[in-house]
Amino acid sequence: QQQVKQSPQSLIVQKGGISIINCAYENTAFDYFPWYQQFPGKGPALLIAIRPDVSEKKEGRFTISFNKSAKQFSLHIMDSQPGDSATYFCAATKTGSARQLTFGSGTQLTVLP
Amino acid sequence: DVKVTQSSRYLVKRTGEKVFLECVQDMDHENMFWYRQDPGLGLRLIYFSYDVKMKEKGDIPEGYSVSREKKERFSLILESASTNQTSMYLCASSLEGQGVADTQYFGPGTRLTVL
Questions:
Q1: Strand pairing partners for B70?
Q2: Contacts with A101 from chain B: Cβ below 8 Å
Q3: B23: buried, middle or exposed (CB in 10 Å: 19+, 13-18, 0-12)?
Q4: Cis bond leading into A8, ω under 30°?
Q5: Burial class (CB in 10 A: 0-12, 13-18, 19+), A106
Q6: Do A6 and B42 touch (CB under 8 A)?
Q7: Tens digits of per-residue pLDDT, A60-99?
Q8: Least CB-CB distance to B101: which of A95, A103, A106?
């Protein structure tokens, strides 16, 4: 059972554009939502994370928007750069069972120069 | 910086062979994880360990076993490799928080091909 659904599977944007990746979850007990970034040949690394007590979190060009009622969250990359080309995974977990993350299926982002 | 290392970047094995994938972390983390990564399926948890000699099954444990004899080392074992186990295998570790979801730190992965 896939508890975190991620879309799109792949995304191509022009340099300077906005990249948007969406995730939806089913388990209302989830209360921590990180995004991981993976470059080719590397393991995923934490990019940014949010808890449902806020609707938005921004770190530089990366913003997470969170809609608790819709059980959806999204990653926005402003002014996308070729160096942002990577695979992005959303994830979710429940505090207290923090040892496990449920990952989305991943989005391969390509930013054209 | 946290460092998670995996014993091999690429591995080619034959069907029926016993395969060992090793992972070592240098930050004294309690939790360690093994995932497999397949296109379109994301990261799926195979097993995790929250202490030495302790293990719990993840979402897809069939065909795999694990061993954790020392805190820094977590091994994934394929008892009899099959072609459907051809995949990228990722190891991760995290610090055990007090009810806090802690960051998982990943190794670079081992791409296993079973012929």
A1: B73
A2: 45, 101, 104
A3: buried
A4: yes
A5: buried
A6: yes
A7: 999 999 999 999 999 999 999 999 999 999 999 887 654 6
A8: A95
